[in-house]
Design brief:
Number of domains: 2
Number of strands: 14
Shape: elongated
Number of helices: 9
Helix content: 25-40%
C-alpha cells in the first residue's frame, strides 16, 4: 500500500468499541483494517492487562495502563477515545492538554455543562477535537436527506425516527453513574439525525424517559419530540422494551411520504408534474362523505429501493483528510454540543439525571 504519511493512533479503551477481542463488536480496530496507509496503531491503553497484551500481539504497539502515559507518548499523533461514557470528558481533556488530536466516541460528555467545558478546552488546545458521530454515514440517513432535498415529498412536516427492540440488558450501559442509558447510548446518534433532518434551530423540546426491560437504574425507553422554528416536527423513539419494532424512518410531506426499515426504502408521492387543483372550503353540509372531497385524479408514483450496506468506517477517511489535508470534517463540535443540550433538556424533571458528571 502506498505510504500516505499515516497518522499514528493511540487507542484508549479496548472493550467492545475499541478492542480486538473476537467476542467484542470490533469497531475501531476492525475499521482501520485496510487503512494502514492512513492510520497506524502505535499505542493502546486499558486497565485490563489481557486486553493490552492482545493489542501488543496483534499490532506490536506500546501498551499503557494509564491514559496520562499514552497521551505523553511523543509517537502518538491522535488519541482515539473509546472508554466508558462517564470518562469521556476527563480523558479528552488529558489528551488535548498533551497537545494531541482527539477522536472522541459518542456521547462526547454526559451532559450539556460538561460539553460546554469540553468546547472551551478544545478552543484553547493545540490539537483538534473530532467527534465520532459515525451514524451520519448510514445509507438510509444519507439517502433520505437526498430525497427530501429533491422536493418530491413536498413540504416535509413530520419525521419519525425509531430504534426499537426488546433487550434485558445488564452491563454498565444500564447504570447512570457510568453514563449508561439509551439517551447516551443510541441517543446521540438519533438526536444528531433528528437535528440534521429538522433543518432548523430547535424551538421546543419534549421528552419522556422510562425503564422497561433493562436492569440497573438507567432508562431504556426514550421518547423525544423536537419542533423546529420552521414548524417541522421530529418524533424519535429509542426503546429496549418494544417487542414489535416500527420502521426506522418515516417522512411525511404535503405531496408524499416514505418509510425505511433496514435496507428497504419505499416512497409514495404525487407526480411532481401534476399541479393540484385549487379548492375553496365551503361551509355548507356536504350531504355525503364523497361530496366532502372534491373530485381530483391524483397521479401517484410508488417506488421501492434496496439501499447499499452501511459504510460507517468512511468517517476515518474524513478524519485523515481533515488532519493531513485541512479539509472540513463533516461533524462539527457545535453540532455535538447541541446534541448534548437536547439530552440535558430531556433529562430535566426525570428520575434519570446522570450522576456521572
Amino acid at each position: 500500500m502506498t505510504e500516505l504519511n499515516p497518522i499514528r493512533v493511540g487507542i484508549v479503551g479496548l472493550g467492545r468499541a475499541g478492542g480486538i477481542d473476537p467476542s467484542s463488536w470490533k469497531m475501531h480496530c476492525s475499521e482501520l483494517q485496510g487503512r494502514e496507509g492512513k492510520f497506524r496503531i502505535v499505542a493502546a491503553c486499558d486497565v485490563i492487562p489481557q486486553r493490552r497484551a492482545q493489542m501488543v500481539e496483534r499490532y506490536g504497539c506500546r501498551p499503557y495502563a494509564r491514559i496520562e502515559d499514552l497521551a505523553a507518548d511523543p509517537n502518538v499523533d491522535l488519541v482515539d477515545i473509546a472508554t466508558r461514557s462517564c470518562d469521556h470528558l476527563s480523558h479528552a481533556l488529558i489528551a488535548l492538554r498533551a497537545g494531541k488530536h482527539v477522536f472522541l466516541e459518542k456521547p462526547i460528555t454526559v451532559d450539556y455543562a460538561q460539553a460546554i467545558k469540553l468546547r472551551s478546552a478544545a478552543a484553547r488546545a493545540k490539537g483538534r477535537l473530532f467527534i465520532r458521530h459515525n451514524r451520519r454515514f448510514e445509507s438510509a440517513f444519507v439517502r433520505i436527506r437526498d430525497i427530501i432535498a429533491t422536493g418530491v415529498l413536498g413540504d416535509v412536516f413530520e419525521i419519525k425516527l425509531r430504534r426499537n427492540g426488546f433487550q434485558r440488558r445488564a452491563d454498565w450501559q444500564t447504570i447512570l453513574s457510568f453514563g449508561g442509558g439509551q439517551l447516551l447510548n443510541w441517543g446521540p446518534h438519533i438526536i444528531d439525525h433528528a437535528l440534521r433532518l429538522l433543518e432548523s434551530p430547535v424551538a421546543d423540546v419534549w421528552g419522556d424517559l422510562k425503564r422497561v426491560a433493562a436492569v440497573g437504574d438507567a432508562e431504556d425507553q426514550v421518547r423525544i419530540l423536537l419542533r423546529g422554528k420552521n414548524g417541522r416536527v421530529v418524533d424519535l423513539e429509542i426503546s429496549g422494551g418494544a417487542a414489535l419494532p416500527e420502521p426506522e424512518y418515516m417522512v411525511l410531506g404535503s405531496r408524499g411520504a416514505l418509510t425505511c426499515s433496514g435496507a428497504d426504502l419505499r416512497m409514495r408521492y404525487i407526480d411532481p408534474a401534476q399541479k393540484l387543483l385549487r379548492f375553496r372550503a365551503r361551509a355548507a353540509t356536504p350531504g355525503t362523505a364523497a361530496a366532502a372531497v372534491p373530485p381530483e385524479n391524483l397521479q401517484w408514483v410508488e417506488k421501492a429501493e434496496c439501499l447499499a450496506p452501511d459504510d460507517l468506517a468512511v468517517i476515518w477517511d474524513h478524519l485523515y483528510e481533515a488532519i493531513r489535508n485541512g479539509k472540513r470534517f463533516p461533524i462539527t463540535l457545535e453540532e455535538s454540543v447541541e446534541v448534548m443540550r437536547v439530552i440535558s433538556e430531556v433529562r430535566k424533571g426525570t428520575p434519570f439525571r446522570s450522576r456521572g458528571s
